[in-house]
Amino acid sequence: MADETKAPLLDFNALVLSLGSSAIVHLGEAPDPTTGQKRDKPEFPLAQQSIDLLAMLQEKTRGNLTAEESRFLDNMLYDLRMLYVEVSQRQGPAKKE
């Protein structure tokens, strides 16, 4: 019997989703895939780095994406930025660092 397990589709949206998921994990909003546990406290610099990478990708690919890819990236960036602010506010200014 042939192996029915297929590798996930690797496309632009998969790259965006991977970087976005990384930011969510660093913000402590999803479990770390290596440990299965959520972070005790957010790692804001690492989350910001993932968000900045997506913003750079957006800038460098502008005009070269399909409408769906562009929309997916725009939505991911918006959602991550809003989540970053929300988590930052929950932590308070003294705990952010």
Features of the shown structure:
97 residues; mainly alpha; 3 helices; flat
Topology, element by element:
Layout: H1 12-26, H2 44-61, H3 67-91
Helix pairs in contact: 1-2, 1-3, 2-3
Structure commentary:
The protein is an all-alpha fold. The protein has helices at 12-26, 44-61, 67-91. α1 runs antiparallel to α2 (44-61), α1 (12-26) runs parallel beside α3 and α2 (44-61) runs antiparallel to α3. The longest helix has 25 residues, at 67-91. The chain is flat.
Helix content: 55-70%
Largest sheet: none
Beta percentage is: under 5%
Q: What is the assembly state of the chains in this entry? A: single chain
Could you give the distance between the termini? Answer: 54 Å
Uncertain stretches: none
What would you report as the Rg, rounded to the nearest angstrom? Answer: 16 Å
Global mean pLDDT: 90
By secondary-structure content and strand pairing, the structural class works out as mainly alpha
DSSP helical segment count: 3
Instruction: Give the tally of β-strands.
Output: 0
Order of helices and strands: HHH
Shape: flat
What's this model, at a glance?
The chain has helices at 12-26, 44-61, 67-91. It is mainly α and 97 residues long.
